[in-house]
Amino acid sequence: MTSCSSSACQAPTREMLDDLVAGKVASHPCYSRSGHHRFARMHLPVAPACNLQCNYCNRKFDCSNESRPGVSSTLLTPEQAVAKVRQVATAIPQLSVVGIAGPGDPLANMHRTFSTLERVREAFPDLKLCLSTNGLMLPDAVDRLVALGVDHVTVTINTLDPDIAAQIYAWLWLEGERYSGREAGEILVARQLEGVRRLTAKGVLVKINSVLIPGINDQALPDVSQLLQASGAFIHNIMPLIARPEHGTVFGLNGQAEPDAAMIAAVRQRCGEIMPQMTHCHQCRADAIGMLGEDRSQQFARIPEPEPSPQPWLPVLFQRARLHASIATQGESDDEDACLVAVASQRGDVIDSHFGHADRFYIYSLSAAGVVLVNQRFTPKYCHGNDNCDTEQDNEERMTAIFDLLADVQAVFCVRMGYTPWQKLEALGIQPCVDDAWQPVTAALTRWWQDYRTRIASSDRRNKGVA
Ligand SMILES: C[S@@+](CC[C@H](N)C(=O)[O-])C[C@H]1O[C@@H](n2cnc3c(N)ncnc32)[C@H](O)[C@@H]1O
Ligand code: SF4
Ligand code: SF4
């Protein structure tokens, strides 16, 4: 794996992304220029099967010496995957993103994939969840992904033309039927586009991967940029084909050329006139662990024992928030008055949620460095999907879990809050703030921070007996 030199790293600038996107990419090592060297990612190899056969792919398990997509040393069960996240998050507290990218297709393994995502979401409410798919089953998965707060999805789209698709894919399986040739291409492209449009309509950040295959799709990729940009995707990642005979793929064995640097640059240049380009993707393994440009998967080769009942991992979560705040503010959050606050929001840039309805809180650091987004915390869901759902006990359990989750913040901003949670928060020393309902987050937090500092200064003076 090559390491990323800063000149080669062309992450999109903040100006290219609106506030909402900027909030979602913060602390994501693949998308954020500042997060790139400071936050770590982890792929969970829980998805062995695939519903599509790309002529460039040979999924390999038990392979520790190759660094390319689709290979993995192990296959994990959902339970083992959660135990592994805990192990890695302890050793690498900079971990901010957990993704599923194979070794097959996550959505060809719906049960394993969603079981893993649900468990990780419950046990690690502050981690971003990512998924990388060929898009065939995406229309069926959008609602579940959104409900879990999966904010980043990568869809591999190599062409919009069914005849070109027939040269790239050998076959696909859908609802028990096998398709090939042009017909398979038509089905795949239609479902990819439907899936992407439904995701972007719900505010999920969609990245498009395209494998650049000389003589097959090099001329077709600007069309992919054009239509996918219009469909709301936010970045295009053109990945050079890897095709070696020793990998045993159709393209590797039939001598299909890999693109040279000049072709990669030329295609990225043409597509870059249409849509922001990602140029620092490391084409990571399906079990990659660590900062971008490093792979520590071998260090974590032992499969940990699954734990009987994964609990939210609060003390470590609080430590990680402080560390992430310090990374994001370049040390300024160590300023004496620095604190964390929570904002109940759906959109992220506006205070727009009722405390009791919030499914996530945005955690901000307030310090001499200003108002800086640290991460999000997803609230536990205690709906068990049966008649017991939404009983008073469920509500009480959920509220207790939310108070635990917010125990390290100084204030909670929301649109409205009931009397009971208000009292409870105050008893915990956390200030409920509803006066800035529907206001932009940055302005509201800046005002609160100025007032907070004034209060601290005057209480210091009182403690010292100064008039
Ligand atoms: C292994 S796949 C797993 C996710 C999913 N099945 C998919 O295809 O999007 C991850 C990414 O690696 C890419 N990939 C797989 N084999 C490749 C190869 N030989 N050369 C370049 N990219 C490859 C895929 O196209 C995809 O974008
Ligand atoms: S869809 Fe993904 S996992 Fe399936 S064959 Fe293609 S690259 Fe491999
Ligand atoms: S494969 Fe590319 S996008 Fe995925 S984790 Fe690696 S660098 Fe990030």
UniProtKB/TrEMBL annotation:
Its cofactor is [4Fe-4S] cluster. It comes from the Bacteria. GO terms for molecular function: 4 iron, 4 sulfur cluster binding; lyase activity; metal ion binding. Pathway: Cofactor biosynthesis; Fe-Mo cofactor biosynthesis. Residues 36-285 form the Radical SAM core domain. NCBIfam families: nifB (TIGR01290). Belongs to the radical SAM superfamily. NifB family. Involved in the biosynthesis of the iron-molybdenum cofactor (FeMo-co or M-cluster) found in the dinitrogenase enzyme of the nitrogenase complex in nitrogen-fixing microorganisms. NifB catalyzes the crucial step of radical SAM-dependent carbide insertion that occurs concomitant with the insertion of a 9th sulfur and the rearrangement/coupling of two [4Fe-4S] clusters into a [8Fe-9S-C] cluster, the precursor to the M-cluster. This is FeMo cofactor biosynthesis protein NifB. The gene is nifB.
